[in-house]
Design a protein that fits this description.
The chain has 281 residues and is an alpha/beta fold. The chain is built from nine helices and nine strands. It has two domains: 2-173, HUPs (Rossmann fold), CATH 3.40.50; 186-273, Pantoate--beta-alanine Ligase, Chain: A,domain 2. α8 (193-214) packs antiparallel against α9 (220-230).
């Protein structure tokens, strides 16, 4: 496995792999890798001849009051996890390599960026769109693996890829959870024992919508009223049932919908979602 912080070296190594006829699989991450990230890398490994993982804590997607400086950084362990999962190349630029001081280009995606995370993290998806567009331009034609854990992010990235005609196939990967249902997240390590128990209320609330739908309830407001009562958080940023394509709230569950929530427990903000009412095609 190779590892480099340089864009030029990354391009060279990927060009060489492509010259050998290898398909490129790409897994963008912010490091602090856990089994969720590893599942993406392993899938990329299974489906491609050359696997690139990026590790970059992207400053442009953090708001002024967010946890950029405290975001967990576990680089040595991350390299080991990448190697064990079968990565061929780890691209780990620093902020100056990605954002030279004279850079002024931004990307704004309208529509799917606006509800939910967009309301609570202004500018977040501009940063996500910019860094992904840059990473895709560095890596080139590839299949890129993203977790459904960040369902709105995947929709935004699909939009960027379509709107900018990027030669990228976006592959959605299932959320990996702890046995008790808590979605794995780099931020889970901030939780105390008691906070972790309370964090479980998010996946429980999502599941209650799932069982409500399975029992024939179709009204979003009835389903949400019941589910929201289960949330044991210091703040609920949102808990909604939305159309999986537009991310607009639905009134009635007719076919597959996304149930999405974001809560704060102490200083930690957690998000999660599930698809209910059918499978996404
Ligand atoms: P991050 O490092 O948080 O930016 O995440 C990098 C990628 O890993 C994103 O595509 C995430 O959606 C994905 N990811 C994070 N947590 C999980 C999880 N529990 N299961 C599956 N994918 C995940």
């Amino acid at each position: 496995m190779n590892a480099t912080g340089k864009i030029s070296e990354t391009r060279k190594l990927i060009d060489a792999a492509r010259h050998e006829g290898l398909r490129v699989g790409f897994v963008p991450t912010m490091g602090a890798l856990h089994a969720g990230h590893v599942s993406l890398i392993e899938r990329a490994r299974a489906e491609n001849g050359f696997v690139v993982v990026s590790i970059f804590v992207n400053p442009t997607q953090f708001g002024a009051n967010e946890d950029l400086s405290k975001y967990p950084r576990t680089f040595a362990d991350d390299l080991e996890a990448c190697m064990a999962a079968g990565a061929d190349l780890v691209f780990h630029p620093d902020a100056d390599e990605m954002y030279p001081p004279d850079a002024t280009t931004t990307i704004h995606v309208a529509g799917v960026t606006e509800p939910m995370e967009g309301e609570h993290r202004p500018g977040h998806f501009d940063g996500v769109a910019l860094v992904c567009a840059k990473l895709f331009n560095i890596v080139g034609a590839c299949s890129a693996y993203f977790g459904e854990k960040d369902a709105q992010q995947v929709r935004v990235i699909e939009r960027v890829v379509m709107d900018l005609d990027l030669p990228v196939e976006v592959v959605r990967c299932e959320t990996v959870r702890d046995q008790d249902g808590l979605a794995l997240s780099s931020r889970n390590r901030y939780l105390s024992g008691d906070e972790r128990k309370r964090a479980l209320s998010l996946s429980r609330a999502l599941r209650s919508v799932e069982s409500g739908v399975a029992n024939g309830q179709r009204s979003a407001s009835v389903l949400l009223d019941e589910a929201r009562q289960l949330l044991d958080a210091d703040a609920v940023d949102y808990f909604e049932i939305v159309d999986p394509t537009t991310l607009a709230c639905v009134e009635t569950v007719n076919g597959p919908v996304l149930v999405c929530g974001a809560i704060r427990i102490g200083a930690t903000r957690l998000i999660d979602n599930i698809t209910v009412g059918g499978r996404l095609t």
